Amino acid sequence: MTAFGALLRKDLRVELRTLRSIPAMALFAVTAFVIFRFGLDREQLSGELAAGVLVPTLLFAALLAINRLFVAEREEGGFDLVRLAPVDRTVLFAAKASALVIYLVVLELVAVPIFALFFLDSASGLIPFALVLLLADIGLAATGTVISTIATMSSARDLLAPLILLPLLVPLVIGAAGAGEHLLAEGGPDYGRFGTWLGLLGLYDLIFLLVGYATFDFLLDD
Amino acid sequence: MADALKSITLHRLAVATVVVMGTGYALAFFAAPEDADQGFIQKIFYLHVPLATVALCGWIVAAIHAIRHLRTGDAKHDARSYVSIHISVIFGLAVLLTGAIWAKGSWGVWWEWKEPTLVSFLIVFLLYATYYPLRYAIEDRDRQARYASVFAITAGAFVPLNFLAVRLAEPLIHPRTFSSAGGLPDSMLWPFLVCLVGMAMLWTTLVWFELDSKAASANLKRIRRALEAPA
Amino acid sequence: MIPLLAIESSDRYVGGAYLVFLLLLLIYVAIMAAKLSRIQRELGSIAELAEAPRPRKPDHDVGQIHEREHEIETVRQGER
């Protein structure tokens, strides 16, 4: 079992046992949908409104998980374990980011069907949209892990992480909502600029995975 | 060449900045023709675009200083990174304000979501504004500097990507740009370039000035500590 | 409109933009001036510290140490 595998399994097992993040995220998302129903005073959503409700809601739910990403390490001194072990620190980055992607995918498996149930009249656009969401999740995980690490070691951690993260995630929102606008359109999915949005999301993922990989070591140096 | 560089002092740079900026804006107002479409309002271009360009480059420079800081651990690179971000944030504020005034003068609205540069700038400005709470929230000096450097690098990588993303967000046919800097007639291009160089010199002067001020304060602290130490 | 204020609206916007820029620059200068005067004050108090006679012998009595500490504290309080 590689170090990466061990770290990832540990996180997933802890999450399964304590259910710290995923239920909260899912509950938040569904409640947010209800709020949007009343806030917008609409029962049917399509196109840009649908994307405009779904993508930001998933984003804010993700912030909940990101805030809690290193809670265990902080409380139980897990950072010291990783620092002392003869492991490349970037392995921790990979493991945490992968765990975050998994949490987000599970969230989406719950929240997106419920969203479709509440607001969409046709779910045919959701399959290609799943690909969009997956790419967005990877980008979110890359940036989220780096910023979460920074925030964890600071005093204002709950406030700092969303504050720094939200501007950084704007390109992901542009990409995901842009694609969603077309895929969830009134008359069925329209693949207008699908390639453009996938390209943007993919580029974001590449750049920030690289940045995370290159700088993570310096965050744990002590 | 190295000797020539050494002879650049802050004082000389400041004087040169005044000369270049003065020349640039004199050219902009007295030599450059009035724009056919926008009229006199277009003169803001010579202020707004250099400010934006220099602020963005400043943030990239900050990222480069941050990389050197992480590689060498030398605190002077951290200071340069911090001040570069700081001065660029001030320039960024000026970009947003002058952009709003230009928008009001051109289109009658104080804000225009369809202007991709202005919107991108808003996002980037909001990001770098978080640099200050980030630094204040971390007590340990060494860790604070390292984390700030990681932030500066992440944000530096973000800037070009963000501009691309916002440009893509606008419907391809209808962005409302103030004007394209490419396709400028020579009579406007030269004044613009002089203003751009002047603005870059101003940025450098202010950064240098601030760095000197910080160094002076730090040295004073050192002296005080040495004098107060039990003999 | 009073002829003095009869500035074309486009001129007003251009003037406004350049004015905003100049104001920001001046605010920056003002802040740096405040920092400079703080540095000067600190420099002054440090000069006093440096000029005050300081016992150099390592074995002075406790009374002198307390006296010295009190002097430093006074200088510090003086400039607050």
Question: Care to describe what's here?
Answer:
The complex is a heterotrimer of chains A (222), B (231) and C (80). Chain A has helices spanning 3-18, 22-40, 47-67, 71-76, 78-84, 89-119, 126-152, 157-168, 170-183, 194-220. With 222 residues, chain A is mainly α. In chain A, helix 6 (89-119) crosses helix 7, helix 7 crosses helix 8 and helix 7 (126-152) packs parallel to helix 10. Chain B is an all-alpha fold. Chain B has helices at 2-6, 10-31, 45-72, 75-107, 116-129, 131-137, 141-169, 186-228. The mean pLDDT of chain B is 89. By secondary structure, chain C is mainly alpha-helical. Helices cover 75% and strands 0% of the residues of chain C. Chain C has helices spanning 9-51, 62-78. The mean pLDDT of chain C is 77. Classes of the chains: A mainly alpha (222), B mainly alpha (231), C mainly alpha (80).
Find the structural class of chain A using helix and strand composition: mainly alpha
User: What is the count of DSSP helices of chain B, taking H or I runs of 4+ residues?
Assistant: 8
Overall, the morphology of chain A is globular
From N to C, what is the helix and strand string of chain B? Answer: HHHHHHHH
Number of helical segments of chain A? 10
- Largest sheet of chain A, described in full? none
- Integer average pLDDT of chain B: 89
Percent in helix of chain A: over 70%
Rg of chain A: 18 Å
Runs of chain A with pLDDT <50, length 5+?
A: none
